[in-house]
Amino acid sequence: MIDRKSLDLLAQAILDHLLRNPDLIGALVAESGLLPGDLRGLAADPTPAFATALVDFICASDERLTGFAAESGWPPLKVAQIREALSCGFPD
Q1: N or C: which end of the chain has fewer CB within 10 A?
Q2: Is 91 among the domain residues?
Q3: What's this model's pTM, rounded to 2 decimal places?
Q4: Structural domain tally of the chain?
Q5: What digits encode the pLDDT tens for the residues 28-66?
Q6: Considering only CA atoms, which of 87, 66, 85 is closest in space to residue 6?
Q7: Residue 92: inside a domain
Q8: How far apart are CA 9 and CA 51, in angstroms?
């Protein structure tokens, strides 16, 4: 299980990674259907659902996950475990 603070920290790390890698922002926008303005609004105050979507996005490919892990210091296995925990639902 993951707590909200840990999820928020991971989501912020993913957002920071996206800012340093604009090609990933393009991929996120294309895959999610979000408009860039929507993304800015969600990033300003991420909800658990948005944070979960970010984790799903970064884990969607090994290249994304390893790039994120190398840049952020988050171990890829930990991120994958969080994704797995989130697949069971976020606790209220």
Answers
A1: C
A2: no
A3: 0.89
A4: 1
A5: 999 988 887 888 888 888 888 899 999 999 999 999 999
A6: 85
A7: no
A8: 9
